[in-house]
Amino acid sequence: MTDPIADMLNRIKNAQAVGKPTVEFPFSNLKGEVAKILEKQGFIEKIEKKGRKTKKTIEITLKYDNKMPVILGLKKVSKPGQRIYLNSTKIKKVKDGYGIAIISTSKGLLTDKEARKQKIGGEVLCEIW
What we know:
Elements: H1 4-17, E1 22-26, H2 29-40, E2 44-50, E3 57-62, E4 64-65, E5 68-69, E6 74-76, E7 85-86, E8 100-105, E9 108-111, H3 112-118, E10 122-128
Antiparallel strand pairs: 1-3, 2-3, 4-5, 6-10, 7-10, 8-9, 8-10
């Protein structure tokens, strides 16, 4: 697998398309941090780490509002062949502030709003709305 974040986003999108309550994928620290941001921003209900050592997985409980998924769209911005780096002044709002962008900075993963506030740029991983 060349792009684990894209795999994670696709699994979430596919699970929501068929109305599954949870989605599970292999554990990594980066995926765990992305999931924590999604939970903090209210896009998913909860995160659970399962297994041990090489069999670790992350289980995400998806959030629905009247049987409609809370996450309407997911978009991978930086790809393995083309990384997108922006400084804090170039970071734009996602869907006029209704969505978030997750940015990998020197201070860890931040949302677009936090990165602009702290005046830190970095690699734009994905957009969620």
